[in-house]
């Protein structure tokens, strides 16, 4: 069995363990991710929900993405760190913030999404495929 992906918030109140490899890994430059991260993009790894185990209670807030679908962002109510996202339209997936991983070097981005909203000062790996918005599923 492969080594699980583990991580959580800065204070340890929220922890996760995920069996399996990411289905998708991206840097997102949409305005929502910029606001949440406080920089030019958010970095995410998305997994099958079936392999996810979360301990601790997150505070959540919902927002509507460009697709019109609701995404729920979860953060630690103690330290404030953003940890994961879920999507009402896609209940079988679970997305974590790459920086929340215990071993962030395991994160391997595949693409850049919402490149149309990139800032000149937010330089990402130029070898990654860039999509103007979200690529088709």
Automatic annotation (TrEMBL):
CENP-V/GFA domain: residues covered: 5-120
Keywords associated with the record: Lyase, Metal-binding, Zinc
Domain of life of the native organism: Bacteria
Keyword Lyase attached: yes
Gene Ontology molecular function, alphabetical: carbon-sulfur lyase activity; metal ion binding
Pfam family, one: GFA
PROSITE patterns: CENP_V_GFA
Entry-linked InterPro entries: CENP-V/GFA (IPR006913), Mss4-like_sf (IPR011057)
Family under the similarity heading: Belongs to the Gfa family.
UniProt xrefs under PANTHER family: CENP-V_GFA DOMAIN-CONTAINING PROTEIN-RELATED, GFA DOMAIN-CONTAINING PROTEIN
Listed name of the protein: GFA family protein
């Amino acid at each position: 069995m492969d080594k699980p992906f583990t991580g959580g918030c800065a204070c340890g109140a929220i922890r996760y363990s995920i069996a399996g490899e990411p289905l998708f890994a991206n840097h997102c430059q949409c305005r929502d991710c910029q606001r949440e991260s406080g920089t030019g993009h958010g970095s995410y790894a998305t997994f099958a929900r079936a392999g996810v185990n979360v301990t601790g209670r997150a505070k959540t807030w919902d927002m509507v993405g460009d697709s019109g679908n609701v995404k729920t962002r979860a953060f630690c109510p103690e330290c404030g760190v953003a940890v994961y996202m879920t999507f009402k339209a896609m209940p079988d997936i679970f997305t974590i913030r790459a920086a929340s991983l215990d071993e962030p070097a395991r994160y391997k981005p595949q693409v850049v999404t919402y490149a149309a909203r990139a800032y000149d000062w937010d330089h990402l790996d130029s070898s990654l495929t860039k999509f103007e918005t979200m690529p088709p599923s």
